[in-house]
Design brief:
A hairpin with an 8-residue loop joins β1 (about 5-15) and β2 (about 20-25). This protein is an alpha+beta fold and about 290 residues long. The chain has helices at about 45-60, 80-90, 115-130, 165-170, 190-195, 200-210, 225-240, 260-270, 285-290, and strands at about 5-15, 20-25, 30-35, 65-70, 95-100, 105, 140-145, 145-150, 175, 245-250. About 35% of the residues are buried. About 30% of the residues lie in helices and about 15% in strands. The structure holds adenosine-5'-diphosphate (ADP) and magnesium ion.
């Protein structure tokens, strides 16, 4: 089971994302980014966060700790924002929390270099879970203490929105051309060789067991929550074996993110990069394009 805590104070909404997560404090004195069951994206987003976040952790990718958070909407009574009030009112009961990383910065591909092996592991993992939400427009990665951390696995496993078509959907390729780590030459073959053998039925059963029953009950077509948990295992197991052959990495899109300001790059690029010479921008079409 994930650790369960109780929210004691709603601190502030986070407006960068689409689902209006909020920062809350809890009775264990922790601070969490809370994802609400009452958000428009629905409880499947929370299921995906648990299954994929915990799977990533078991593959030794960095993901902040996940907890479940009991919410009594009364803690938001003094919240002036109508939208937040309504979200809290609709989310009484069990919600998802992610340990808040204080002082973390949003990943910027022009300010932080990732080596080909790490980029390969993240791209391969995103291909496995069919993550459509790690593009350079919206990387959903944080840099904290000099390391890359993965957040936001809500928009993954598209097949769980249409279970009868799940096998066909999971057989499809993964287009990583716009992935935030595509410019770093991700070594997906090495990542597949390292990570695919770790994706076993046992491991997937372990991570799906962490999803609270509350978020699984009454799914049409499933008699029990455990039957639904098994349905999550199958497409991931099938995909793990061969997805590296179906990762599309075309030339990156023409429009690029803007160059990061100097104060940011100076601040978060303290180490030399082993595989690329960052002094020599002629090797780097991405940097040239931004001049
Ligand atoms: N664990 C965390 N620590 C610090 N900041 C976070 C954390 N999780 C999310 N954030 C910040 O909140 C924003 C929204 O969170 P995210 O999980 O991406 O939600 P959404 O589903 O709405 O996109 C992120 O872009 C990031 O800036
Ligand atoms: Mg996000």
């Amino acid at each position: 089971m994930l650790t369960e805590v109780t929210a004691t104070r709603y601190v502030t909404p986070l407006r960068e994302g689409g689902s209006l997560p909020g920062i809350v404090e809890a009775d264990d004195l922790g601070t969490y980014v809370m994802k609400f069951t009452g958000a428009g994206q629905g409880r499947k987003t929370l299921v995906a966060e648990v299954v994929c976040g915990e799977l990533a952790r078991r593959l030794r990718l960095r993901v902040p700790e996940l907890v479940t958070i009991q919410l009594d909407p009364v803690i938001g009574l003094s919240e002036p924002d109508q939208e937040v009030q309504e979200l809290l009112k609709a989310s009484g009961g069990l919600n998802l929390g992610m340990d808040y990383l204080p002082g973390s910065l949003g990943f910027d591909p022009l300010a932080y270099e990732v080596d080909a092996a790490e980029a390969g592991r993240v791209v391969w993992f995103d291909a496995l879970i069919n993550n459509v939400d790690r593009s350079w427009r919206n990387p959903n990665m944080l840099v904290w203490h000099g390391d890359l951390w993965l957040i936001d696995h809500g928009a993954t496993m598209i097949w769980h929105h249409n279970w009868p078509g799940a096998a066909a959907s999971a057989a499809k390729p993964y287009n990583a051309s716009d992935h935030a780590l595509a410019p770093f030459g991700p070594d997906v073959a090495a990542a597949a060789a390292e990570l695919a053998p770790l994706i076993t039925e046992e491991l997937l059963t372990e991570v799906t067991a962490l999803v609270p029953d509350e978020w699984l009950v009454d799914e049409p077509g499933f008699e029990t929550t455990d039957a639904l948990r098994r349905a999550y295992v199958e497409p991931l197991l099938a995909r793990a074996a061969t997805i590296h052959e179906r990762i599309v990495l075309d030339a990156p899109a023409a429009t690029k993110p803007s160059r990061a300001p100097g104060w940011l790059t100076d601040h978060i690029k303290p180490w030399p990069h082993p595989t690329r010479n960052s002094q020599d921008s002629s090797q780097d079409p991405q940097k040239d394009a931004d001049r």
